[in-house]
Specification:
single chain, about 270 residues, alpha/beta, Nucleotidyltransferase, domain 5, 5-stranded mixed sheet
Length: about 270
């Protein structure tokens, strides 16, 4: 990996940058709305360095700021960056696994040996969390939504299996969801925290269902999760862990995985 190359992953919500300083790979992250601030830092740091761009906003950055930059596709960048991070963290996964990139939306990749293919995509992801957070809780800041979800009780919002079978014993775990957001105000009152806990759960359920189907299709149980929506998001990670255990898949949350795209760009 060249120390003279800076990788920039410009997605729908965030700009992520991978660069080398004093012999170590370092990262920076900006909101896409603060692109001018990100580029101001870049102008001071990137003299005589090669810029490689990836992500949905790569074309915009190239046209406005880096006309000489190289652009690579975001799927290749994410997979190559994730493989680099797996080696860096000494994660010895067999050569047949899924890579799930939870960003604004979510993409599923099958990686086997040196080859990869994108096999699935969903509009459910971090954009869902922020959009529903704004609608249901009046909050659009990612970290604040995560804090709310951590304190919430989704059972005040979701209709659970145990609610349907009450007062009897359900034949399956009672904490499973019978219907998302099915408890109206007539049944129970809910807080912003409760509603965000229900949103996190709905995202987790959706991602797990699709992951299980993809894993069965590709005959693997190994799943590597990356993406900015998982960064600092313990409620989502815990929920994905819970459903993974029930579903028989084996998840790993890759350290610094949100920077996979930027790292992959830097490698080129």
């Amino acid at each position: 990996m060249s120390h003279d190359t800076i990788g920039i992953d410009a997605g729908g919500s965030l700009i992520k940058i991978a660069f080398e300083e004093n012999g170590r790979i370092r990262f920076r992250k900006y909101s896409i709305e603060d692109v001018d601030g990100a580029m101001s830092w870049m102008r001071n740091f990137s003299a005589n360095k090669k810029i490689v761009l990836t992500g949905g906003k790569a074309g915009m950055l190239k046209a406005k700021y880096f006309p000489d930059a190289e652009v690579i596709d975001e799927f290749t960048a994410a997979c190559e960056g994730a493989k680099f991070l797996m080696q860096k963290n000494e994660l010895h996964i067999d050569d047949n696994f899924l890579l799930v990139n939870v960003g604004t939306g979510t993409s599923w990749f099958h990686i086997k040996g040196d080859k990869f293919e994108r096999i699935l995509g969903s509009g459910v992801g971090g954009g869902t969390l922020i959009g529903l957070g704004s609608l249901l809780a009046g909050v659009s800041e990612f970290s604040e939504l995560v804090k709310l979800a951590a304190k919430g009780n989704r059972g005040n919002v979701d209709l659970l299996v145990k609610d349907i079978f009450h007062p009897g014993e359900p034949p399956i775990p009672g904490e499973l969801t019978a219907s998302n957001f099915a408890k109206s105000a007539l049944i129970t009152e809910s807080s912003n925290s409760d509603r965000m806990a229900a949103v996190i759960n709905m995202i987790s359920e959706t991602l797990t269902l699709l992951t299980v189907q993809a894993a069965a299709l590709k005959q693997t149980k190994k799943v590597i999760y990356i993406g900015s929506t998982l960064a600092g998001n313990k409620p989502l990670q815990s929920s994905l862990d819970f459903y993974a255990e029930m579903s028989g898949i084996e998840p790993v949350f890759l350290p610094d995985g949100e920077y996979s795209g930027a790292i992959g760009a830097k490698k080129f």
